[in-house]
Amino acid sequence: MARRGAAGIVFGRQKGGAQCAIVVEIASVDQVPARTPEVASPGPQPMTTAGDMFAPPVNRAMKVLDRSFFQKTVPTSAARIFSQRDISRCRNELDKSKDTLGLNRIQPIRPDPNEERAKAGGKCIILRPEVLHNDRNTWSPKLRDLEQAGAVGVIPFQLHLDYNYFTYPEIMNAIIEPSEEHDELPVGFALAGHVAHLNLRDKYLPYKLLIGTVLADKNPMVRTVINKVDDVGAENQYRTFQYEVLYGPDDMDVTLREQDCTFQFNFAKVYWNSRLHTEHERLCGIFKEGEAICDVMAGIGPFAIPAGKKKCFVYANDLNPESFKYLKDAIRINKVGDFVRPFNEDGHQFIRAATADLLQARHRVPVYSKKKVSRKDTNREPLKILEQPWIFSHYVMNLPASAITFLPSFIGLYSNVPGVSSDEVRQLLARTNTPLPMIHAHCFSTKSDDNIAETQEICAEISRQLNYEITLNTPDLQVWDVRDVAPKKRMFCASFRLPEEVAFRKV
């Protein structure tokens, strides 16, 4: 939730975990602390012995997955139900008395361990580990009442667990020892379509094939598991990365949905980060119908396509020809061609060229009711006509490694537009009561508890690039904490209104 800092700057922390139907985000591999298996308790009463009892067997030497190793038989007790008519009643009463085994992954109602009874449809209910079949002192009053009434009998029960029962974190804990050397277990990943994307630290590379196999086994949506082998943007200006396949086919053509939009692309050829879905939603939530948006580093359109669906007029650009190709595909698939225009240009030149084009372009889009009408009805009237604005309301620059260095392109943005004088732009802004645009520049910085120092450093760099002072007290300034990237690295979005002195400076 956003919070207001001491100097009036708004800070915010993105809360992870929310997912759409196909794009799944789980905590970063490098950020999830080591943890032991968690076992749900049957109601509020803690199960003091269940942690060890239901954990998988341990094998620290395993490097190639042996599923047959993960077998375990847990000795427990069960309530044998003598009449099938009493199954539901006994289950409800034993649940209320907290006698039933309360593990989410275990179905407590099982066939009777006696083969003849099982063939006749006999059932039993597995009880929590503290209930011993040969010690009535461990029985609850309700269990005693049911036994005395002849509804149930308490018997020993051998509960068999296998590889299918244990979760991915539990298997990892059984193989990789959570010591000081292995202080963080690889229990997280990002999912784009059917591809699970890992970023394994060097110390886990000996386990990489095993990790990929278990991850795919435990996540039905996963068909391919990959591990990044370099830093995004370090070797490639398009922010693509080298990868190795840990499991499944080398198939990087994915389809996914975000913000009710469909995207189809090759994950190896473009930049896509599932962990930014909350940031995509946050910024798109700011945009209003009929506004003009300039998306300078649009990628395949995670900002541009949802904005187009909101009936914003979007100029969307990316330098990567592959991103440009898939951006055009997304415009077609999501039917936003009336509102989103794709470009494949250098971002520095695009900022000025798109601004000049918008000032002189004329574009009107009729908006019709969503109610289905007959194809023969060619005379239906639109609900309204949306006219493309002359001025962008927002510039989005989602290139955190270098977006701030693009800010000099805004110096004199309206002072040297071909065919339009700066006085005409001023008059247009005044006549239409239009504020100067907001700039949203993503960037990296260090991390702290309050982000005050980081915000000051970001403001100082913006000031240096614009040759104009931006401070914590600048109106409309917002430095948003997007997400943690690494132990000492955080991604921010610096949003501020383009200063008039900068926009109309003579250059």
Automatic annotation (TrEMBL):
InterPro entries: MeTrfase_TRM5/TYW2, SAM-dependent_MTases_sf, TRM5-TYW2-like_MTfase, TRM5/TYW2-like_N, tRNA_Gua_MeTrfase_euk. GO terms for biological process: mitochondrial tRNA methylation; tRNA N1-guanine methylation. It is found in: Mitochondrion matrix; Nucleus; Cytoplasm. GO terms for cellular component: mitochondrial matrix; nucleus. It comes from the Eukaryota. It catalyses: guanosine(37) in tRNA + S-adenosyl-L-methionine = N(1)-methylguanosine(37) in tRNA + S-adenosyl-L-homocysteine + H(+). The keyword S-adenosyl-L-methionine applies. It is an enzyme of class 2 (transferase). The keyword Acetylation does not apply. GO terms for molecular function: tRNA (guanine(37)-N1)-methyltransferase activity. S-adenosyl-L-methionine binds at H280, D318, L319, D346, G347, N398. Residues 189-500 form the SAM-dependent methyltransferase TRM5/TYW2-type domain. Its EC number is 2.1.1.228. Keywords: Cytoplasm, Methyltransferase, Mitochondrion, Nucleus, S-adenosyl-L-methionine, Transferase, tRNA processing. Monomer. Specifically methylates the N1 position of guanosine-37 in various cytoplasmic and mitochondrial tRNAs. Methylation is not dependent on the nature of the nucleoside 5' of the target nucleoside. This is the first step in the biosynthesis of wybutosine (yW), a modified base adjacent to the anticodon of tRNAs and required for accurate decoding. Belongs to the class I-like SAM-binding methyltransferase superfamily. TRM5/TYW2 family. Belongs to the TRM5 / TYW2 family. This is tRNA (guanine(37)-N1)-methyltransferase. It comes from Lojkania enalia.
